[in-house]
Write a structure and sequence with these properties.
The chain is an alpha/beta fold and 303 residues long. The protein has 6 helices and 5 strands.
């Protein structure tokens, strides 16, 4: 049995750790509220970009296929997968579930004869892919706790350039979608080609108000300049805003996961303290009993 002093030292150590986890939980909760506000502020702008992009594509008609970014490649030989992870850990399964989903998606593509090129946002994703000897074509780190639009633009430019130049034939993104502080879901979405982008489906649903009804009345829109030129300007913005939304969702999910993980750690620390306190009391009782036995033994020896 450990001595009373050793157990007390362990109790003090666990108490210090609990102070840290409680502080980290409070910080994550405060930042989470701000992250939720950023997501809610982005949604109207993202919805407007989606509406404008779809309407301009409908107006352009057959001319859409002439734009390089809207040209679907004849064969999907190379697929780019962007993993959105965090720069830090201590967030439960937040990073590991994205990595597992990304490697599983890569395995599916490779089983069908396609090559996979990885892009990663967040130090955890970059380091994990490097450890698994997966080449990372684009690494973006240092901003996961507070991403800016410029960060999304940098990633979007690299992915668009790779697609237009023919280095990749499809772009997929995997990130943690924010549902609530306790729930984050892994989302796998197609970003390019735009004709297969799963984000377009969200735009359709949002614009119908979730009811699936269409009044049948559409405003007559005249475009100046031509719809093709407007599309050429809109589509990069569309890709950027889609990536920015994914980064914000991932940030909120990371903070929610860290808040939950730190709360669980604090509760576990409390249970450990209770167990160690009980062990210390037993050690103290054993020491007192031993002293009583020694006193009684000594008194009997004097009789």
């Amino acid at each position: 049995m450990a001595s009373q002093r050793d157990v007390k030292r362990r109790i003090d150590s666990v108490k210090n750790i609990r102070k840290i986890t409680r502080a980290m939980e409070a910080v994550a909760a405060a930042r989470l509220r701000r992250a939720e506000q950023r997501i809610s502020h982005l949604r109207p702008y993202a919805g407007a970009i989606r509406r404008m992009t779809r309407q301009a594509a409908e107006a352009a008609g057959t001319e859409v296929g002439k734009l390089p970014i809207l040209q679907q490649h004849e064969r999907e030989q190379t697929v780019a997968i962007l993993l959105v992870t965090a720069d830090r850990g201590l967030a439960g399964a937040f990073n590991s579930q994205i990595l597992r989903a990304g490697l599983r998606a890569a395995g599916e593509h490779e089983a069908e004869g396609r090559d996979v090129t990885f892009y990663a946002s967040g130090r955890r994703g970059v380091s994990s892919l490097t450890f698994r000897r997966r080449e990372v074509a684009g690494a973006y780190v240092g901003f996961t706790e507070r991403p800016s639009y410029a960060d999304a633009r940098e990633i979007a430019q690299d992915l668009i350039t790779a697609y237009v130049d023919g280095n990749v034939d499809r772009v997929e993104i995997l990130y943690n979608g924010y549902v609530s502080p306790l729930v984050q879901e892994v989302r796998r979405e197609t970003l390019l080609p735009l004709q297969e982008a799963t984000i377009l489906e969200e735009g359709e649903h949002e614009e119908s108000g979730g009811e699936g009804e269409d009044s049948g009345h559409h405003a007559l829109v005249e475009y100046e300049p031509d719809p093709e030129e407007i599309l050429q300007r809109l589509i990069p913005d569309y890709v950027e805003i889609s990536l920015y939304r994914a980064l914000l969702e991932s940030t909120a999910s990371e903070l929610g996961a860290r808040m939950t993980a730190m709360r669980n750690a604090s509760e576990n620390a409390g249970e450990i303290i209770q167990d160690l306190t009980l062990e210390m009391n037993r050690a103290r009782q054993a020491e007192i009993t031993q002293e009583i036995i020694e006193v009684v033994t000594g008194a009997e020896a004097l009789v």
